Structures are given as C-alpha cells and as structure tokens.
Amino acid sequence: MSTLDTLGRPLRDLRISVTDRCNFRCSYCMPREQFGADHAFLPRASLLDFDEIARLARLFADLGVHKIRLTGGEPLVRRDLERLVAKLAPLPGIGDIGLTTNGSLLTREKAERLHDAGLGRITVSLDALDDTTFQAINGAGFPVEQVLAGIEHAAAAGLGPIKVNMVVRRGANDRAIEAMADHFRGSGRILRFIEYMDVGNANGWQRDEVVSADEILERIDARWPIERAPPNYPGEVARRWRYRDGAGEIGMIASITKPFCGDCTRARLSAEGSLYTCLFASRGVDLRGMLREGAADETIAERLAAVWHGRRDRYSELRSEAAAAGRRKIEMSYIGG
Ligand code: SAM
Ligand code: SF4
Ligand code: SF4
Questions:
Q1: Is 43 within the bounds of a domain?
Q2: Coil, strand or helix: which one is 56?
Q3: Residue 1 included in any domain
C-alpha cells in the first residue's frame, strides 16, 4: 500500500528515536552550555515502551513503511535495545532495520546481541581521527580508539557494510577530511560526509561553517580520483562516489547545498511518541496519548494516514525563508537524526 503526501511522496521510512539522552555532548547537536547538568530530559514514564513502539511500527508498516532506523539521542543508552529490535524485525513489511550510534557503547557482545535480534545495518558517527579534534567535538573526552573498536565489533558481528558518518564543520574538523578518507579507503566501511545542518536552535548554526559537498569532493578527488556511482535505490539520501582505484566508495549528504526534499519519504517518531514529518518541524502530533487512552488500531492508523496525507514539508528547499521567519525547531537529539 502506498500512502502519498500532498507532494506525491510515499511513506517509506520510519526513524524511531528511543531516547533523548546521550553520553556525548557534540558541539553541533547537544552543546554542553545548553545541555548541562540541569537539563531536564524526558522522564522515564513519558517514553514509549518497547511494546508501544512496536505497535506503532506495525501500523506504519501497514501504511507502506519498510525501513526502520533506530536513533536518538544515543540509542544504545536505552537499556536492552536488542529487545526492541527483536520485536520490530518480524513485523510484516519491514525489510530492513538500521541503527545510528556514536559507537561508544558498542562492545562485541552488544553488537552480537543486536545482530542476533535482527538488526541489519549500523551507522557509526565519527568526526575525526585525532583525539584533540574528536574530543573537542564530542564534549565528553571520549577517545577515537574506542569508536574505531566499536566499528570493528559491529563488522565482526555481521552488521556490515558499516557506514561512518562525519559531520563536517568549518573550523572544527574540516582539516580532518583527507585523514578520514585515507583511513577508511579500502577498509570496506563507507564514509559519508554530512554537511553541517541548522537542526534545532542550540548549536548556533552559521552558514559560513558549512563545508559544501562540492568542496569536500574536490579535495578528495585531488588526492584520490573519484567518479560518480549510481544510487542503490531511488531517493537515496546520500549521493555516492567511488574511488577510481577500486578502494571503495564514499557518500555525500548535502542537505544544505543540494536539498533532497522532493524524495523525502521519512517519518520520525520521537522518544515520547510524537510524530514528525520533517527533521526541521516545530511541532509533532501526539500518538502516545492515543495509545494510552486505548485507541483501536484502525483509529491510530487513520490518524497516521491523515497526517501523512496532509504533509507538505520541504524545509531544506525553503531554508532561507523559514530561517528568516525565525521559526523554532525541535532539537536533533530529541527528534532523532
Ligand atoms: N547519537 C547517535 C549518533 O550520533 O550517531 C544518533 C543520533 S545523532 C542525532 C544522528 C546523526 O545526526 C549523527 O550522525 C550526527 O552526527 C548527526 N548530526 C547531529 N547534529 C547534526 C547537525 N547539526 N548537522 C548535521 N548532522 C548532525
Ligand atoms: Fe549525542 Fe549523537 Fe547528538 Fe552527538 S550527535 S550529541 S552522539 S545524539
Ligand atoms: Fe525531508 Fe524535511 Fe529534510 Fe526536506 S527538510 S529532506 S522534508 S526532513
């Protein structure tokens, strides 16, 4: 079944944020000045439990969702996440379950448990290979070595091909572009460069801190010639390039300089059960209330379909206008990246 929004975009993917908490304080996402010791995270009782999440996921699958990605905050700080994966994996229509993590809690055992529960793929975020740069960004003094170990554990558990996300912010880690490319060339990991985005309000985003995908591509091509590779499937967010010498591929997520709203088939479920139809939304639709008030499946499904039918979001294509209007947006750690 295909559920289309006002711009004819089908509902295909669901990103589920399982927590708004994180053990990192990345400067571009949860800067410590805003997310300090006194920050009020969601109380436990307001988070959806795993059965509630799985029920909503089943209803989303009935409406056409076939890919699920677990995110956060840091999804691995949610205890026993593999129990959720085990509930989602058998849902009819769900062909693919992925996880985006900062890798800090990815031990060998955890990776194996996630894989055994039915997790298919994993993306690990890593912004530099030297501790000085990485620790200045992650705000938690977390060492690079341990994230690299997490990547290896995931690969060994069969969670590959592993993708590595690098958010590039001028002045913070743009000097690390070549070192990252060099490290992951030929490793079987797919490095993806992400343009620094104006998500939320906390990071104080400035346009001149964005390093464009074109600039990154030029720098890489100058060292290791690359060529365009075709998308794996229509509407793939990351555009692909491969090294001409056969050392693998890289991806570019250019949401600032080359917005891809026209192909955006993603819905987002926050940890407390609100539905968002855009990463840059300012308001969500509460589903937890319906779940806890005993609404029938059909009633919830009708609500989901109605929200998607009414969807008109294309923030990235309208970025300058929306920013000029001073719209308040939801933080990335809350809505899930
Ligand atoms: N904590 C997990 C992690 O870092 O992978 C999952 C959640 S995080 C919000 C999801 C992704 O969003 C990460 O790859 C992160 O680097 C990216 N991200 C966060 N803030 C961003 C920003 N302002 N611009 C671009 N990407 C961002
Ligand atoms: Fe945490 Fe991920 Fe945000 Fe970094 S990007 S603060 S690891 S949620
Ligand atoms: Fe999708 Fe919104 Fe991002 Fe556009 S700005 S690609 S609609 S999440």
A1: yes
A2: helix
A3: no
Atom 22 of ligand 1: nearest residue by CA position? 197
Ligand 3 proximity of 279 Cβ (cutoff 6 Å): yes
CA 102 to ligand 2: nearest atom: 7
Q: Does ligand 1 come within 6 angstroms of the Cβ of 173?
A: no
Number of structural domains, the chain? 1
Q: Ligand 2 within 6 A of 101 CB?
A: no
Question: Does residue 98 sit within a domain?
Answer: yes
> Strand, coil or helix: what is 188?
coil
Residue nearest ligand 2's atom 8 by CA: 73
Distance 273 CA to ligand 1 centre (A): 20
Q: Is the CB of 127 under 6 A from ligand 1?
A: no
Ligand 2 within 6 A of CB of 72: yes
Number of residues in the chain: 337
Rounded to whole angstroms, how far apart are CA atoms 282 and 201?
11
Distance 320 CA to ligand 3 centre (A): 14
Cα dist from 245 to 180, 184, 213, whole Å: 17, 14, 21
Ligand 3 pocket member 264 (CB < 6 A)? yes
Q: What is the pTM of this model?
A: 0.97
**Residue 211, in any domain of the structure:** yes
CB 281 within 8 A of CB 271: no
The domain in which residue 194 lies consists of: 13-335
User: Which two three-digit tokens encode residue 279?
Assistant: 């990463």
The residues near 86 (Cβ < 8 Å, ≥ 6 apart) are 117, 118
* Per-position pLDDT tens, the chain of length 337: 679 999 999 999 999 999 999 999 999 999 999 999 999 999 999 999 999 999 999 999 999 999 999 999 999 999 999 999 999 999 999 999 999 999 999 999 999 999 999 999 999 999 999 999 999 999 999 999 999 999 999 999 999 899 999 999 999 999 999 999 999 999 999 999 999 999 888 888 999 999 999 999 999 999 999 999 999 988 899 999 999 999 999 999 999 999 999 999 999 999 999 999 999 998 999 999 999 999 999 999 999 999 999 999 998 999 877 665 677 788 888 887 7
Residue 205 sits in a domain of what CATH number? 3.20.20.70
Please give the distance, rounded to the nearest whole angstrom, from the Cα atom of residue 116 to the centre of ligand 1.
Answer: 26
